[in-house]
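Ticket reopened. Same input as before:
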Amino acid sequence: MSPPRRRDREALVRPYLITGGRAHPSGRALDLTALVRTERDTGYVELGPEHGRVLRLCSGGALSIAEIAAHLELPASVTRVIVSDLVDQGRLSTLSTEWDRHGPDRELLQEVLDGLRTLR
Amino acid sequence: MTKQHSMNSSLRSGPALVIRSAGMAGLTALAVAGAVTVVRQRNRITELTKQLGEHEAELEHLRTKRLPALAESMNGGTHTQVPGPLGGGNEHGAAESVESLVDGIEEVVRLTREHVEQASRRTLTGVLDTVRGLAAEQHMAVSEMQHRHDDANVLADLYTIDHAGSQLSRRLRGFAVLFGAWIGQQRSATPVQEILRGAQSQIRDYQRITVSAHYPEIAGSSVEELGVITRVVEPLVLVIAELLDNAARYSPPYAQVAVGVQPAHNGVAITIDDAGVGMPIEEQRRAERLLSNEHVALDEIGDPPRVGFAVVGLLAARYGLRVSVDAPPSYGGVRAVVFVPNESLTHVEREQQAEEPAAAAGEVRQGTTSSGLPKRSRRDRDTTAKQAPAAVPESSDSATGLAAWQQATEANSTTAAGENEGEDSHA
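Engineering reply: fixed in the latest deploy. New output:
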């Protein structure tokens, strides 16, 4: 595992701009491991380029919020706001997992952990 | 003997007569010459007295009128007219000598000012560098904190600090430009869209800015691929930010400011339209003057400093951009146009991972794990990484890691996000 690369410079587009100053997700709070998948990608997203990128990113299969955040190089809390916007609009759907019904089981956590580790 | 005597005496008296008459003539000549000299001297005295009078008048004029006017025009930066000499058309008169004196004074003042200006710039740049270093450090820390903390309330607070930090950074870069110092960090070639949104991030009323999502196709580059070369990125961000700030500041607080990109001859034009009340004509003149300046003296900055247009003008001149600001009478507000020439444009490779689906459509069904989690491959990774979702890490590490992970999720902590951030960057 290689250590996570640190950002060597500040991002030009700031997180508050990406979410329009909103720090709180519009819908219900989604966990970092919540899986989301693109329902419909109309190409043009009036919300912003990052919203469009999330839709394209999740169009091939479900991704967790932590994974999306890593792909976009955005803070998890900011990613959560973006994902929440898209879920509200029906463009993204959350996959109900065992977690939602019974809480996390060890096997699932192991897989998520392994998955997250490979991100490094 | 007597005759001889008389002859002798007459012979003797001859030269005396000659001498006497010669003496008379000499005296007369002397008298004439004296008279001429007296007349000439009297004339000279009159002339000198006149010249002295002229000098005195010229000096008095210099002291009471010209020097104060000169001082005012050189210090105030106002358009004070410095009166000319009293003159009188005399070529070698008082006017000319005083004129050369005035030139000398002007030269001394100019050199002194140049020296003071340079020394001041050096001092200010030094002071600015210290402040910029600290501000950059703080801004970087706030960026890191936003990645580290996964709490909406904390994020809201960090937004406030980040926003203030971005504005501070913009102001400091503006001053650096005015002081003739380095503008700041160099960035890699960046898409125009990112530049516009980056500029938007740096102003107070960023929420009133609408950046158009529609871009022209230029030289085969579409939407996200139209970029700006390294050297011009930071200057262009600052130019746009200053113009956006100006547009937002001088338009009603409820009105939007629209930013668009249009193809232009040999480049692109970035337009910034506000719905303000336009611009008074003297303000427009001021803007035009500042935008065309290639040098701004420190004493032109003003107190309180109004640096926006001055910074834009300097950057435009230095980096080959063309900027115009006008308020067409038929139009409600002010339109600023920034022309970026083709030489400064480039094709930016789009960020593959962010743009492409992370998992191919087929893979979800094919490769689900026993718990129903999708397996996915990451194209840019090496083979070990590709196999990784299915591979299980070393068990000793796994158990402790898992326990920590479980604990972390229960506590709704942010460890995972913190550890994974910064991955897959394309710098």
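Confidence is low (pLDDT under 50) at residues 360-399, 412-427 of chain B. The longest strand of chain B covers residues 257-264. Please confirm and we'll close it.
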